[in-house]
């Protein structure tokens, strides 16, 4: 008797290929493009932020510099009167701003110890060092405003604050910005600053600014 042949199995259909990116619905493609653009924008913005120019806070750097001064730092400074006059004159000429040194006598307490030039970025700073009672170091810093816009009356007022753990006073005129810093007594530093402030304002007025 003839033997029946086993039925031939029907071939299994291969799985349908997954659609490529270009075959995906337009809506999916659009969301993918938007997401990629957002991520790229964030990455570029974050990267460029590191190269953005930052304005130097010269007052902060000046205060940090002065925080290193101690009584023994200025105790060894003993220039002659003629040397001090020359230092002040040279510093004033270099920074291009009159140093209100007349304020020293008005404070009735500060002793001039040194005047020199330092710098922050590409700008020069006049750095005038005094000894307060108890040999407490006090410094007057002055920077030229580089022909900035004229200041209004509010900006010319004196402001006291704490910087780097020390009492400080700041003010400005049309021609310069000032920082007086030293010790931890805000009332005392304000009293000293008032003397320098009044002289610097008179200088500005006399210059017609």
Explain the overall architecture.
The longest helix is centred in the first third of the chain and has 24 residues, at 26-49. The chain is α+β, with helices and mostly antiparallel strands and 209 residues long. It has a six-stranded antiparallel β-sheet. The chain has helices at 26-49, 58-66, 71-75, 81-95, 103-107, 186-206; strands at residues 111-120, 123-132, 136-144, 159-163, 166-172, 176-181. Helices cover 38% and strands 22% of the residues. The termini are far apart.
**Structure classification:** alpha+beta
Cα Rg = 35 Å
Q: Helix fraction?
A: 25-40%
Which H/E pattern describes the elements? HHHHHEEEEEEH
Broad shape? globular
What brief labels describe this structure?
209 residues, alpha+beta, 6 helices
Task: Please describe the topology of this protein.
Blueprint (H helix, E strand, L loop, with lengths): L25 H24 L8 H9 L4 H5 L5 H15 L7 H5 L3 E10 L2 E10 L3 E9 L14 E5 L2 E7 L3 E6 L4 H21 L3
Antiparallel strand pairs: 1-2, 2-3, 3-6, 4-5, 5-6
Summarize the model shown:
The protein is of the alpha+beta class. It is built from 6 helices and 6 strands, in the order αααααββββββα.
